[in-house]
Amino acid sequence: MGNSSYVVGDHSMKPVYEWHLNDRNDFALKKAKKYRDENEKLYGKRHPLIAFFLQRDTIIEDSAYAFVKGYLEDIKSEELGDMNKIIADFEKARTTDNPAPVLRAYSRSHGFSQQLNKDMAKNTYHALALYCTPLNCNVLARIHDGIQAFVAILFHPKLKDYLCRGVFTIYRGATIDSEELLEGYENESTIITTTFLSTSKCPGVAEMFSSLDPTKQSQISLLCRYTIHNYRRTALDMAEFSKFPHEEEVLIYPYVPFRIVSFTKTTLEPTGQKRIEVELEEINDIPTGS
C-alpha cells in the first residue's frame, strides 16, 4: 500500500491538534460558523455592476497564486514531497479556473498535507484560544493568508460533485503516546475540527493506523468514528484523487462542530496497552442570536 498514512491517520501528529474544545459561551462554535460563512460568501452572487466591471470571477486564480507565493515557497522542502508537482497542480488550477487539481495536490504527499494541517491547527489555536489576529501575532502573520487561500479554494462551488451527501459513518485511526493529549475531551463535549481530517468509509483501513507496536508499552491506540449529517459543507469524497482509491478516503473540512457521543477506554491483552475509542456526531449550528 505504500506510504498512505495521510489517508486516515498520522502517527506523528498529535490528534489533539485536530480538535478545539468548545467553551461555555460557545465562542468556538460562533467563530467556526463565521469562518465558514466568510468562505462561502466569497462565491455568493455579485452585484451586477461589480460583475460587469470585473467581467469574471478570479478567486481560484488569485487564491492559487497567493497560496504558492505566500505559503508553498516559504515551506518548500524535499522532505515535504515532490513540490514541483504540487506547485504544478496549483498552476493548473489557476490557469484552468478549476479547483480539482488542488485536491490532487493535497493527496500527492503525506509530508505536504501534514505540514499544511499542522500550520492550520496553529492558526485555529491562536485565533480561538489566544484571540490573536494577523496584526498582533507573528504566527498568524506568517501563515494566515496562505492557509486561508487554500481553504477558500476548497469552498468553491465547482467542487459540489465531490461533496458527501446523506448520513453515514467514517473512521480515523491513529496512535498517541499519552492520554494527556485528550484531557478535557469527554462524553457530551463539543469540539471543532481545526484541520482537514483524512478519514475512511472502511473501518478496517482506520484500524491499520491505530495498530500498536507491542514493544512500546506507553503507546495508545485511538480510533475515532465520525457520524456525518452534512448539515453544511462537511466533507469531500477524495477517492478520485487519492493514490489509494480502494481506501475510500473522505476529507472532513475544518471548522465543523461535533459532539462526543462516547469516550471509551479499554486495556488490550496480552500486552496491557490501552485503546481509546471516540464516537462523534456532527451537530448543527447554534441558533443565530443565541
TrEMBL record:
<keyword id="KW-0521">NADP</keyword>
<dbReference type="GO" id="GO:0016779">
    <property type="term" value="F:nucleotidyltransferase activity"/>
</dbReference>
<keyword id="KW-0520">NAD</keyword>
<keyword id="KW-0548">Nucleotidyltransferase</keyword>
<dbReference type="InterPro" id="IPR000768">
    <property type="entry name" value="ART"/>
</dbReference>
<keyword id="KW-0808">Transferase</keyword>
<protein>
    <recommendedName>
        <fullName>NAD(P)(+)--arginine ADP-ribosyltransferase</fullName>
        <ecNumber>2.4.2.31</ecNumber>
    </recommendedName>
</protein>
<comment type="similarity">
    <text>Belongs to the Arg-specific ADP-ribosyltransferase family.</text>
</comment>
<keyword id="KW-0328">Glycosyltransferase</keyword>
<dbReference type="Pfam" id="PF01129">
    <property type="entry name" value="ART"/>
</dbReference>
<dbReference type="GO" id="GO:0106274">
    <property type="term" value="F:NAD+-protein-arginine ADP-ribosyltransferase activity"/>
</dbReference>
